[in-house]
Amino acid sequence: MKINTLQVNIKLPERLKRLRDLAMNMWFSWDQEALDIFIRLGYHPACAPERNFWDESGQNPMKLLSILPQSELDDASQDDSFVSNLERVYEKLQSYLNSRSWFQKTWPDRAGFLAAYFSCEYGLDECLPVYSGGLGILSGDHLKAASDLGLPLVGIGLLYQEGYFQQYLNNDGWQQELYPDNDWYTLPVTCILNSDGLPLIIDVPMGEEPVFCQIWRVDVGRIPLYLLDTNIAQNQPYHREITKRLYGGDRDMRIRQEIVLGIGGVRALAAMDIHPTVFHINEGHSAFLSFERIRMLKQSLNLTHQQAWEIVWGSNVFTTHTPVPAGNENFTLDLIRKYFTKLADELGYGIDQFIHIGQEKPDRSSFCLTVLALRMAAQCNGVAKLHGETSRKMWQMLWPELPVEEVPISHVTNGVHSFTWINNRLTDLLESYFGPKFREEPEDPEIWDRIEYIPDNELWRIHQLRRDRLISFTRGRLSRQLRHRGYSRNEVAKAEEVLNPDFFTIGFSRRFATYKRATLLFHDLNRLEALLKHPERPVQIIFAGKAHPQDNPGKDLIKRIVKVSDDPAFRNHIVFLENYDINVARYLLHGSDVWLNTPRRPLEASGTSGMKAALNGVLNLSILDGWWVEGYGEDNGWAIGSGETYDDPLMQDAIESEALYRLLEREITETFYNRDRSGLPRQWIRMMKDAMKSAGKNFTTHRMVMDYARFYIQGHDAYEKIVADDGKLAREVNAWRDRILESWNQVHVIETRIRNPLKDVNVGDRIDLDVRVQLGNLTPDDIVVQVYFGSLDHDDQITGGRVETMRVVKQKEADWLYEGSFTVERSGRCGYATRILPHHSALIHPFTPLRIKWE
Description:
This protein is an alpha/beta fold. The chain is 41% helix and 18% strand.
């Protein structure tokens, strides 16, 4: 049977035409008034009063419009109040899109600036399921904050036919996965068309054959997000599956996904005549984009691959999210040869040199995308202060002669999009006391000082309402879970009575990886039972989260939690919620009293769920790892331990579970249940306000994106300068590098001496140095002479070193004389060393590739 297809469009009444505009811009996901338009429409049952169209749509505005009966839409169009509200919200969107932004006010002279942000997943809203967890949520929040700030930016990702899996548990508590297809015609995505009105198709080299992609656009406020899709008729079946599942398939599938993301993403932008000046590689998945940029620059400016690399390196930004070597993306050399031999020859590298770029050392048997990105980006960063330190130690082997403090990996601490994650009732309260600047100028952190104006009783009343909603939501979801698992009616009925809206509630929701230790509280079940059932200070815990489909140890953690929650001793106090997503996260983040986080330090790169909790007045109880190293203060939450690390994980679990129990038993629950005559926990509310203030000032994506904007501007300026005059400066810098390489064996520090030695050296004294160097065929304009100094550790290595640049004095025969000084800042043993580095004014930093000569 031959089936012919038609695409039937939604027929909106004239007075409701604006609904499509609102539904097709993800701005609705962080503006409650826009969302309320669709909620009201879904709860407007003129012809089917027993149906809830909003819930049936999965809280997806576009799907809601597609499933509403025409009579329902016609009826709404006659509701003057609804239409008036629709017009008002539409005008609000237009005002938002067209208002003068922070970026325009801060950098009015960067008219040509455009950043391209590459990520393999984006968590914008539960109605667009192309995300799995923290990385995707961060990427979505990045785009939203860029939109609020008016930062010129485009996003690039993949459009997954099945997205990430939906989770359910079998009768044994073991995680199962479902992969329902996404229907793009009922989602807020638009297919990009060519000049003939047909889908714009690009080709991506994939070994000996091309893969074809079409491009979809998602509007995120002012920011366009472009998603590539290989599930089209032009591709072979095995290539159509490239964009089938997020993090699905074997290693061959994974490398093909990342080729499409990186190389295909650059080609898609060019095909749409979009020309970014700086590229942000968010995690290593898209690192192959650098090779496509080199290829395009070679062609357009007639450069060598080394000259094109100068441009790419200076205008790439790379963010690493992984704190352990094993967590970085690696591919076998056979896969690299399979898919890149042809491209490597085209670029002028040859496959062996191509492979070397992605290897820590030449003898390694794999190709690492993190190494590739670190070598291809002038500006690299971790995602928290501690993670920056961890990353510099982890990757020092790429800069082996450089002190660890100078390894060119900085940090930009992650943040969260406040308007997305703060409960709408709480947002209304904040706006009533903060004023219009809260939304209009999110770049101003000082607005959070006004939280002191909010009366304690108002803040606490909203928090109690949110906990009530969380308990109600949890009961309903648990009942559905148990029915699905085949539990009896009696057991399902009992689920509707679990938990208590007045009890102290702990929330724990995140990816179930073993290092996150979801079951640390279960270390002593007798003690846990006593804590939960305390006659005066009862406690309850709600868990949620997914394990990776191939992570059986993570699934074991879920199974254990479910088994404990089924035990009659714990049944009314512990719940595990299935199918964790953005919607479940919101309920937990809004209604919990404490947010628990128990990773093994230093394996948590950043973590952002605790930031979202803090913005909602939910207090953090966490190991000092990731962002909490920076966020913790004695007045805004609790730290488990003091930042120790352990060689014995069993000992660590015993010590830190004991610390966790003691905090909950002796301090946290006592503070929560300590009420004054008016029934208010004043000290708890004080801590809620401090948590909200510190998170609002320091841990939003508005602050984060403003930090990245400085990287972007530096990369943009470097790009504009080096591509001018058909890449003239790129050629000059590359010729300079060749000259440095040819002459570097002639460069030496001959002698360093103290000019006027002091008998006794005291803190604050200045040490004057004379240095004699040989430069061979180079001149002082080609290099910089520096003194590196600081305190000595027990291995006689300089720690916390600082740098002072020396000045050239004169040439004496074949030598050059330099002089300089440094100030002794601490007592104890001090060390100093002199060195020579290449120097060129066009370089963002001189460390890649590293040439350095120490005395």
